[in-house]
């Protein structure tokens, strides 16, 4: 525990990976909930309105805890990565500022209006709110990936007096490593939420719930999201390989030539990434293969209708498969980030130079506090999601009217004169 660089890297890996678990489910669930509410609003169907409340409640739980992890994670930039802020902050900080001002505040404000606007706002206005929330959630993810894409493939800048200055905002915002990653993550979130919805529905159907139609339709919607997203995920993931850093595949001749060039320009050092990056790439590909197989099985099952409701073995399979998208995404993130080492910004700023000038004691304390806090938040989120998912639609309180006794009491109190 006396290596500040390794501790800072490990801390950021654990906290960023934990935060990403929330982001994926939030993006996908926001989309599915918006589609549910659209159908409920257009058709007036009470079942779809109940589905919107139930799945919307799970979305709000995941979003609320995820926001805390995101805010806490940003403290690390100032605490552990002061060198990065000083040298490249004028470029790297631009999309982060745009994410906060343009996307995050709008998303949070409209989500609050959506949560507290049930049965108080016009139904079309209320529907518009959830679509604004959904679109700004994707906009937020896009800006974050613009910042990360610049770390992978720095464009639209120039170095002056050893500091990076932004010269081309358009190049920064259209960087292929950001755009393709955004599409990859977007479909990955839809896949994650679809399988989550199918898994929760499978749990209730396996237990022979009385809400057969409710969870039968939820199961179909979740599996449809899986089928729609599973192929684009790998397509947009594969398209990113044309922009992969040459050192990422460390055994290739191109990687060795690039490492030799870096050694000549920046001095001696190991410019080839750890073998963990290649291992993560293999895990990602293997898990995607399992998800693709599950999507095929889901299509076959859907062709025979009732099997989705009565097939108890299939219910167990979809429940067991819920963690798979998370494993695939985290493996892909490890490949993307660890494969960039030893660079914080590829070819511009080494990770060791991005570190703040702090001692191992402070880094150790930060590591213990941050990772402990994130472990608690992840556990709390999992517990809350499981608790409210098990309750079913009858336990959904999002936008629900108060119980009759409370409502009558409130009405009586309102009519009682006060002196």
TrEMBL record:
Species of the source: Actinomadura rugatobispora
Keywords: Cell membrane, Electron transport, Heme, Iron, Membrane, Metal-binding, Transmembrane, Transmembrane helix, Transport
Membrane topology note: Multi-pass membrane protein
Subcellular localization: Cell membrane
Keyword Transmembrane: yes
PANTHER family referenced in this protein's UniProt entry, alphabetically: CYTOCHROME BD UBIQUINOL OXIDASE SUBUNIT 1, CYTOCHROME D UBIQUINOL OXIDASE
Pfam families: Cyt_bd_oxida_I
Stretches for region Disordered: 397-419
Main location group: membrane
Keyword Electron transport: yes
Name used for this protein in its record: Cytochrome ubiquinol oxidase subunit I
Transmembrane segments: 12-35, 56-76, 96-116, 128-151, 178-200, 221-243, 283-304, 316-335, 362-386
Similarity section: Belongs to the cytochrome ubiquinol oxidase subunit 1 family.
